[in-house]
Structures are given as C-alpha cells and as structure tokens.
C-alpha cells in the first residue's frame, strides 16, 4: 500500500440486464465459471482460478445497447474483452451458449458478439 492511499482491488464487474439468472447462466456456460452467490435479481460468478468476477443485476427499465453506436440510441457503457486460443472455435462455442454474432466486424482478428441481454463482447486471440 502506498502511504496515504487506501488499497483498491477490482472485485467484480456488474452487468445490468432484464433477467440476472438467465444472463448469468449464459456466462456460466460461456466461461465455465462457478456461481458463488445468487439472489432472485442478482448473481455472482467467479473464475475458479481467482481474479475479478462477473455479477448480473436485474433492472426493470433495462434497455440493450446499440452497437455500433448510433446517435440518440442507447449507448453501451462497457464491453468485455475475452482472450481465446482459437477464434473460430470460441465463436462457435459462444453462439452455441446463446450469443449472436454482430453483423459489423471491425477487425479480422476479433469477433464481436452479443450476449442474450444485448451487451457486446469481443473475442480475441492471445
């Protein structure tokens, strides 16, 4: 700890959605992570190896972001970058888990997909 500065550790990224248990189940299948805590409107996943977790929180007024962004429409606030060993295999696995491939792909070495709640996420090679 630096003198005069409290310790900070990013513990969890929380994704808002319409149905927290459903979105958590998608990411559980995608990543193979474990459910560590669950309530009706909130679920926490943790990587078995440790590190930052993912939580999902149901929000009654949730609106899926639009990507690529367009003026006057719901903007994304963040997206997840997920490193993979094989892009084609990872894309197929993500789609089988419930993701959909974005029509617009900005790069050949990255795949942009949407989770079931409409959040964009990127798969990229190591």
Automatic annotation (TrEMBL):
Name listed for the protein in its UniProt record: Glyoxalase
Domain VOC: 9-126
Gene3D superfamilies assigned to the protein according to its UniProt record, in alphabetical order: 2,3-Dihydroxybiphenyl 1,2-Dioxygenase, domain 1
Cited SUPFAM superfamilies: Glyoxalase/Bleomycin resistance protein/Dihydroxybiphenyl dioxygenase (SSF54593)
Source taxon at top rank: Bacteria
Pfam families: Glyoxalase_6
PROSITE patterns: VOC
CDD domains (UniProt xref): VOC (cd06587)
InterPro entries referenced in this protein's UniProt entry, alphabetically: Glyas_Bleomycin-R_OHBP_Dase, Glyoxalase_6, VOC_core
